[in-house]
Design goal:
Blueprint (H helix, E strand, L loop, with lengths): L3 H4 L8 H14 L37 H77 L2 H38 L2 H14 L1
Length: 200
């Protein structure tokens, strides 16, 4: 029988894609098993800054060899704490700037909407005033005296007759010209053309 060790295939991880593929294969072997999702990393908390030691030992007063390393660790922690505080300040500044920009954008949108709303309202009022004016004019027209209305109608009829008369005259002259040209013989046409040419 084959040993269980020989059944297992040893896979060599050469790059990141191989590692990712191995992890996915391991996950897909048992799909019912819940995948581990790590929690969000918590913000670092640093201890309070170190208090100043007023009675510092001098180099000739018996300072041990470990004192330098103690100082080095204190300095490293202080630098890390200051860097963290600087990052917090930058993050807060960015948040404040982002919220200020959001507020400015919201205010600009509201102002534009209010401006457009006022414009639409003015247009509606103008249209309403026009409709009321038209309705007043239409209501005043029947109330006006019959003599005024009859005079207006007569003027309109005269204008209409005048325009129709002019049109009739034009059509008659055109028709006469056509008839003359049809009735004229060839020599008469030549004479009329020569007369018209000499008259021009």
């Amino acid at each position: 029988m084959a040993s269980p060790e020989s059944d297992k295939q040893v896979t060599v991880v050469r790059n990141a894609t191989d590692l990712q593929r191995l992890k996915l294969e391991k996950l897909m072997k048992n799909p019912d098993k819940l995948a581990f999702i790590p929690d969000r990393p918590k913000d670092k908390k640093f201890s309070d800054p170190a208090e100043f030691v007023r009675n510092v030992m001098g180099s000739s007063a018996g300072a041990g060899s470990g004192e330098f390393h103690v100082y080095r660790h204190i300095r490293r922690r202080e630098y890390a704490r200051q860097e963290f505080l600087q990052n917090c300040k930058e993050k807060d500044d960015q948040d404040v700037a982002y919220h200020r920009r959001l507020e400015e954008n919201r205010r600009a949108v509201e102002e534009k909407a209010a401006k457009n709303r006022a414009k639409r309202q003015r247009q509606k009022e103008r249209q309403k005033a026009k409709r009321q004016k038209k309705s007043k004019n239409s209501s005043k027209a029947p109330e006006s005296s019959p003599s005024e209305s009859s005079e207006e109608e007569e003027e309109e009829e005269e204008e209409r007759k005048g325009s129709e008369g002019e049109k009739n005259k034009e059509t008659e002259t055109k028709g006469r010209g056509n008839k003359l040209t049809e009735e004229q013989t060839e020599p008469e046409r030549m004479v009329t053309q020569s007369k018209s040419a000499s008259g021009d």
